[in-house]
Amino acid sequence: MGSVIRSAGMRGFRDVVEQFGGDAEALAAQFGVPLDALDGDDVLVSDVAMARLLEGAARALPCPDLGLRISAYQDIGILGPLAVAVQNSPTVGAALECASQFLFLHSPVLRFTLVADPEGRPGDVGLCYGSSEGTPPRQATDAILAFSHRMIRFLLDGPYGLHSVHLSHLPRAPASRYTEFFGAEVRFGQAASLLRVPRSLLDRPLAGVDDTLREIALDYLHSHFPEPGRVVAPRVRNAIDRMLGSSPPRIDSAARLLGMHARTLQRRLAGEGTSFESLLDDARRDAALRLLTRTDLPLQQVAGLVGLSEQSALTRCVRRWCGTTPSGVRAGSAGVSEAPTYTDRQGFTAGRGSGGRDHER
Questions:
Q1: How many percent of the chain have pLDDT more than 70?
Q2: What is each CA distance from 308 to 31, 272, 314, 340, in whole angstroms?
Q3: Residues with Cβ < 8 Å from 48, sequence gap 6 or more?
Q4: How far is the C-alpha of 305 from the C-alpha of 292, rounded, in Å?
Q5: How many helices (H) and strands (E) does the chain have?
Q6: Which end of the chain offers a freer environment for a tag, N or C, measured as fewer CB atoms within 10 Å?
Q7: Do 277 and 248 meet the contact criterion of CB atoms below 8 Å apart?
Q8: DSSP code of 50?
Q9: How confident is the model at residue 228 (pLDDT cuts 50, 70, 90)?
Q10: Which residues contact 313 (CB under 8 A, 6 or more apart)?
């Protein structure tokens, strides 16, 4: 690893070290961590230095479960302004998506993703922690996964159905210490570090949420902390593709999927030289031409699958796109191809803007 991390991840370090009779400041100096990082949340520290400090302290004290012990001093407040948005999310899944989206505020290399259950159970998923620059060291992995476990318990005010925990490293502390902490089976030396949970956990509602507070927090985060290099248009196009044929393709629905307010999404898209209407028009065009040229579905059904309520609206759109009717496209007389696409660094694909009319929403 070679990036920086907020010193909020060090909260509790001084307390644990002093419990074991150690000198937290001497250890910090030894491993090149600024002393003010021991008592403040917003000092930027080299993640390499912090990881070495945690590993070095665990050996020197000795305290092989240092990462677990530190997490006991950390609450959702270490997320800073992101904590408000996370706590006021409608569901656990929305809260985790929000936290993942803004994890770069804590460190630009940390990743927290949803993955298929490594045990192959279709009703379960894995909440996976890792780094874009390699496997994090033992104590750092323990600390962040322990914090994630405690955060979910806090959001639901109790157990959340944790099946088991996978850790990529082998333990220095007794395995029973991990089992006691997580309250579930812990497996070591696994391919990835993750929490195995029921998929249904993602849909569990959070109590006492305030939608207005969440929108204010998200607007603040998006306006003050845009993720470096992240463009939003491909993500919106991906959201539209998911909505077509299953739910009305509305900007507020896309904004919720992306964890932001609709007005913020409009501003972000405008800043990238496009709009929700333009992206929706592209998505409808691609889907309509695909259905017209590759299936024999009735035109009314094609219209519904691209988010249009009437066949006449489909006809108007196809005339604008192709200069002919849907039947003409199906008969092969139009000689058209799908809109050119581009792919961003996340792998999402989107069409270039074609302007938007006939957007029945």
A1: 88
A2: 61, 26, 7, 22
A3: 1, 2
A4: 11
A5: 16, 9
A6: C
A7: no
A8: H
A9: low
A10: 303, 358, 360
**Residue 200: CB atoms within 10 Å:** 13
Contacts of 296 (CB under 8 A, 6+ apart): none
Integer Cα distance of 94 and 155 in angstroms:
12
Q: What is the rounded CA–CA span in Å between residue 219 and residue 211?
A: 12
- What is the SS3 assignment for 158? coil
**Strand residue runs (E) in 23-72:** 44-46
pLDDT tens readout for residues 299-351: 999 999 998 989 999 999 999 999 899 999 888 744 444 433 333 323 333 33
Q: Which two tokens stand for residue 65?
A: 């479960």
Structure tokens at 297: 């579905």
Distance of CA 274 to the CA centre of its chain: 23
Q: Which residues contact 158 (CB under 8 A, 6 or more apart)?
A: none
Tens digits of residue pLDDT in 3-39 = 788 899 899 999 999 999 999 999 999 999 999 999 9
Tell me which residue of 138, 158, 139, 136 sits closest to 149, measured CA to CA. Answer: 158
Burial of 337 (0-12, 13-18, 19+ CB in 10 A): exposed
How far CA 46 is from CA of 17, 43, 79, in Å, comes to 20, 10, 18
Query: Using CB atoms within 10 A of its CB, is residue 12 exposed (0-12), middle (13-18) or buried (19+)?
Result: middle
pTM here is 0.65
**Dihedrals phi, psi of 167, to nearest 5 degrees:** -125, 140
* CA dihedral of residues 301, 302, 308, 313 (deg, nearest 10): -110
8 Å CB contact between 66 and 57? yes
* Pure H helices in 88-195: 92-101, 138-156, 175-182
The rounded distance, in Å, linking the Cα atoms of 290 and 302 is 10
